[in-house]
């Protein structure tokens, strides 16, 4: 059974730092992996989607990498800002399902001004 | 743009009561989903609708029913609420499944069962 883990559960860093969030999964048979952002009291917003054949995706200050064979993905945030404070979740889509996402519990990120 | 709209935002129920969570999307998406989010856990899929007229069970369907009323609307019903159903519920939609398609979420419905 696929399991997705995000460590740490919470992270607090000063503004301006570059930081890395981690996501690991137990079964490498994935079709793609997505990173989402969740703000308090709000829904989730997709940030980056990496297909299983890709190694990384970039959007602005965000860069997500995928190492499918080792079951790991990282989300790199450059020059962090207080507005980046949110919970970041990763989710994998198994190869055998077009409708299922398996989610990590998220990392709550606080950027201190 | 409204995107995915779900109602109500907050609800308190007594054990045994029933209620329906409503969800509508205005993006002409074929696929819709209901998830629940509990503290310290990832989202879990309750039910999904691949397209209008179809519904299928997800990971945690027990205690819930769904209706895909039309292409826009997908409702989630709790027939006899239990404290274990206290959670935040999210409706979501995507153009056609998850073949590299972005999934869009509503803002959530906070449900407390006492």
What does this structure look like?
The complex is a heterodimer of chains A (113) and B (114). Chain A is mainly β. In chain A, 0% of the residues lie in helices and 57% in strands. In chain A, strands 2, 4, 5, 9, 10 and 11 form a 6-stranded mixed β-sheet that branches. A 5-stranded antiparallel β-sheet of chain A has the order 1-3-8-7-6, with no helix packed on it. The termini of chain A are far apart. Chain B is mostly beta strands and 114 residues long. Helix content of chain B is 0%, strand content 49%. Chain B has strands at 4-7, 10-13, 19-25, 31-37, 44-49, 56-57, 64-68, 74-78, 87-94, 103-105, 109-113. In chain B, the strands form 2 sheets. In chain B, strands 2, 4, 5, 6, 9, 10 and 11 form a 7-stranded mixed β-sheet that branches. In chain B, strands 1-3-8-7 form a 4-stranded antiparallel β-sheet, with no helix packed on it. Chain B starts with a strand and ends with a strand. Classes of the chains: A mainly beta (113), B mainly beta (114). The interface between A and B is medium-sized, with 25 and 27 residues.
Question: What is this entry, summarized?
Answer:
Chain A is mostly beta strands and 113 residues long.
Give the helix/strand layout.
The complex is a heterodimer of chains A (113) and B (114).
Chain A: E1 4-5, E2 10-14, E3 19-25, E4 30-38, E5 44-51, E6 56-59, E7 62-67, E8 72-77, E9 86-94, E10 102-103, E11 107-112
Parallel strand pairs in A: 2-11
Antiparallel strand pairs in A: 1-3, 3-8, 4-5, 4-9, 6-7, 7-8, 9-10, 9-11
Chain B: E1 4-7, E2 10-13, E3 19-25, E4 31-37, E5 44-49, E6 56-57, E7 64-68, E8 74-78, E9 87-94, E10 103-105, E11 109-113
Parallel strand pairs in B: 2-11
Antiparallel strand pairs in B: 1-3, 3-8, 4-5, 4-9, 5-6, 7-8, 9-10, 9-11
